[in-house]
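Re: How this chain folds, sequence and tokenised backbone to follow
Notation: Tokens come from a learned vocabulary of local backbone shapes, not from coordinates.
Start of record: The labelled sequence and token lines come straight after this line.
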Amino acid sequence: MRKLLFVGVSLSALAAPTMAQDADDEIVLASEVERDNEDTITVTATGTRSPVEASGQAITVLGADEIASLQGPDLTRVLERVPGLTYSRSGSLGSQTSVRLRGAEAEQVLVVLDGVRVADPASPAGGFDFGNLLSSNLAKVEVLRGSNSTIWGSDALGGVIVASTCAETGLDGALEYGANDSLTASAAGGIADAETGYLGASASYARTDGFSAAANGTEADGFEQWAVEGYGRYYISWAVEAFARIRHAEGELEIDGFPAPNFTLADTDDVQDTRQTFGSAGLILDNGPLYVQAAYSFADTARDNLDGSGVETFTSEGQSDRLSLRGEWRPIGPIIVNFGAENEWTRYETLFDDGNSARLFGAYTQAGIEWRGISGHIGARVDDHSEFGSEVSFGADASYAVADNVRLRASVGEGFKAPSLFQLYSDFGNQLLTPEQSTTFDLGLAYGGRALDDTPFYAAVTLFRRDTQDQIGFIGCFGNTDPICDNRPFGTYDNIARTRAEGVEAELRGQIGESLQLAAAYAFTDTENRDTGNRLARRPRHAATFTAEWAPLEAFSLGADLRIVGASFDDAGNFTRLDPYEVLTLRAAYDVTEQVQLYGRIENVWDEDYQTVAGYGTRGRAVFIGARLAL
């Protein structure tokens, strides 16, 4: 079978020291060191690679085997295994998909793909649409729940999601076909030399006829996307290496709109074309006690909306460029110092707006200790925005082994989100906006590790609370005499809301004998707009995922995933209710040989009729079959 060499960003663009020293102080190259289980390593806590158990923050890591076992390109089926994570989608695969952590706004979650911040500066709130990211070639997903702007700066108010694509030796591929004439194909491969470096590439393709985005519609709305990626590393010396990565994706999504004369959601022939290009390049110095990475990265997202006759009804383009420096220094014994600085330039334009630009500079330092059963970190960051000035963020966390395999965890973190370019400079903009700010507290207790490396059983429970102030919202100005509406007849943005989210997360995983594994992830999340007393829109109080994996034979396995989501409201006024739902997926896989696997699944076994966005449909019962090849 193939040998895993690197796993995307976690081992490259945000890697931590890859050299080690033995008892005789002999320097050992990374190629000579057995790598840790990637499912136990994260970059979300400190910005460089560190064990999950060394952080007091709530972090979930989903590895390559777990992602592949779930089958198919739909990333939301992977993310459902994270406690405290929910999503809403406006239609079928590829449609607008918003992911929320612990009840935060979707735009308050920082998303990083292969070391590149991929939010779209041209979107109204500057967020990332998960409908454009498929799981086909993902090797790892790390999710930090809670504010962590100390390390990550703007947008890390609700949490951080870091995704890494495949970067491995050998060749593998997959092909899948199923309901709604859906076809998914992916391939990845690479070559490596311990003295020279690594060169790899991957590609994926997905299409589906879909179903009507409008729940009351009859015309199917399809989706098609292709993506290609390239990645290389070159070892300049035993301590210095260069890296570069590029990704380009293009997709076409058929969407429903609000046609005349009723102006309600209904079938239309509209389409949305999306083009994304992300890339990064840089140098890494790693001499053992000191690790430093300097990099340039960019992200470009362009969207064109066209009506049935091909006329553009809306276009936008958002671009970001970033220079960054990240490092880790181990001066003595258990002491660790993480540090970094970055400067980001963002700009946007739309069909109706010439656009504008902004600059954001930030620098941070975090001191830590990892000694015996104690791990702790404390740090601060200063950011300076070209429009609103400076912002300071603090954070601290601790993890303590109170007994064998039992750890007590605690953290406090501050987060902020700079106003988006659209909120500042568009026709609806307000240049007097200030950043959204949050403070998160959580306290948890864990037994074992989620990867089940050291124990056959894992259990974790976390209490959390997040208070957010100066949250930005839209103000309608029709008939509004407030001075803020002067010369803004159609509305504007303002810092108008204070919100709170609190609750409890729990996760259980257990290996029962050699063949059976059971798991559950649950979160109770109570959200409130503290100015109105209403629950926040599309935030279910209860969300749980139950999973089972059974391998009665060495070459044959069965799996089941049950997603249960409680009721919520679709709007801020709490007038439109979204009903609770339960969705069951059954999976099977058979290893024909060591290189070939056949698999299949049935999604939504009970043909549940439900909605995550009012008025938008979801897929009914669907069957898929596929095959994988690994050389």
Q: What stands out?
A: The longest helix spans residues 64-70.
